[in-house]
From TrEMBL:
It comes from Micromonospora reichwaldensis. It is a multi-pass membrane protein. Gene3D superfamilies: MFS general substrate transporter like domains. This is MFS transporter. The keyword Transport applies.
């Protein structure tokens, strides 16, 4: 188990390093170089590659090397591509003045990262049993915050003190750790390869035909994601309205709140295996309600540093707990033969809900105010948790072992 989880940890963390750098670190560097806010806003659109990655997920489920390992063969190419994409940024030591090629490289990186995520998720679906899926998904969610800390935090510090090239080289070196892990990884033989590309693409819809899957995907997921995401979307504008500096906002939202989120991801993942998905979802829902109440002073224009930071830390920890449960149940519905496609489809819908939450929340706040939107968000989360608890009682997770567990016991590492 330690070997499998260690492999997944390395791959998930290195996957998010560049994403954290692009969305947080590079944004700060470009702004420091004089790039306009409108241009920086457009840069964020490169992240839209992630919600549409289901379009090519079936290709990874269908095609792969039998000799090097079905998904391992993809990961060798993709992880190497991530390193090369980062190294391609080296010549552009004045990114604000060379924005065109920098953005093009970032788009290529995000595409490679999104595709690598498909392959890693497929490996996780095949290697994790029902009891260990919570831990695996806790690692996945926590890894996103670790990547944000290193890529969006540490690399910016290196850039500030030593310059562009050392920061990029550090980012590439950390990402190369994942390539070493993939090289040593021995994927169990696959005996359930999808017969054709058509069959792989039919999985895009057939995944929703499983008992309770539509209720989960179109009921629980949007209620929780839109409810929690709506409150989160209000945080940064409320800080600006409370006259917080951009530097303070960046440190608090990008670094300080990542630490409790990492802990919450790991703890909730382990708790799912011990207490079950439903109970942990309820715990996350209650924590979201309480932490949203703690944010009300900020949303009312009163933002003392200590109280606001404490409220945000609690909120991000609660958001992470709910997120881990949602990912875990998505993995419950992911079939080993088409794990990359299934998990990607279900997770992509959650990403779409998050984008919708941000736009709807900000538009509603303009009309009704921040506190009213926060209260409505708590109601949505409560409905989602209630529906999710009922779902888990009626459709408990499959208890069969994941394919490859028996083979893994014979594989070193």
């Amino acid at each position: 188990m330690r070997g499998r989880l260690g492999t997944l940890t390395a791959l998930y963390v290195t996957q998010y390093l560049g994403i954290g750098f692009i969305t947080v670190g590079l944004t700060a560097i470009l702004r420091d170089g004089g790039t306009s806010l409108d241009t920086l806003a457009l840069l964020q659109f490169v992240g839209l590659v992630w919600p549409i990655k289901f379009l090519w997920a079936p290709v990874l489920d269908r095609y792969g090397s039998r000799h090097r390992g079905h998904y391992r063969s993809w990961l060798l190419v993709l992880q190497g591509g991530l390193v090369l994409a980062l190294l391609a940024l080296l010549p552009f030591d004045r990114p604000a003045a060379q924005l065109g090629p920098v953005v093009a490289i970032c788009v290529a990186y995000v595409f490679l990262s999104a595709t690598q995520d498909i392959a890693v998720d497929a490996v996780a679906v095949r290697l994790l049993s029902e009891r260990s899926r919570g831990t695996g998904n806790g690692i996945q969610v926590a890894a996103s915050y670790v990547g944000n800390l290193l890529g969006g935090g540490a690399c910016v510090v290196v850039y500030d003190r030593f310059g562009w090239a050392p920061a990029i080289l550090l980012l590439a070196a950390l990402t190369a750790v994942g390539l070493l892990v993939v090289w040593r990884f021995r994927e169990p033989d696959r005996t359930d390869r999808v017969e054709s590309a058509g069959a792989a693409y039919r999985a895009l819809l057939s995944v929703l035909g499983q008992p309770g899957c539509r209720r989960w995907t179109f009921g629980v997921v949007p209620l929780v994601y839109i409810g929690a995401g709506a409150t989160y979307a209000l945080v940064t504008p409320a800080m600006v309205d409370a006259d917080w500096s951009l530097a303070r906002i960046g440190v608090v939202t990008g670094v300080v709140t990542s630490l409790p989120a990492i802990v919450a991801g790991l703890v909730s993942g382990a708790a799912i295996g011990r207490f079950g998905r439903g109970r942990v979802l309820v715990a996350g829902g209650v924590a979201l309600a309480l932490s949203t109440a703690m944010l009300l002073p900020l949303l009312n224009g009163q933002a003392p540093l200590a109280g606001t930071v404490a409220a945000l830390c609690c909120f991000m920890a609660a958001y992470t707990i709910a997120n881990v449960v949602l990912y875990t149940v998505n993995m419950d519905y992911s079939r080993p033969g088409t794990g990359g496609t299934d998990f990607t489809v279900l997770s992509s819908f959650g990403l779409v809900c998050s984008f919708v939450a941000a736009s709807v929340a900000l538009a509603a706040a303009e009309v009704f105010g921040y506190p009213a939107v926060a209260v409505a968000s708590v109601v949505l989360v409560a409905l989602g948790v209630a529906l999710g608890l009922g779902h888990q009682r009626r459709f408990p997770p499959r208890s069969v072992a994941a394919p490859g567990e028996r083979e893994l016991s014979k594989v070193p590492g």
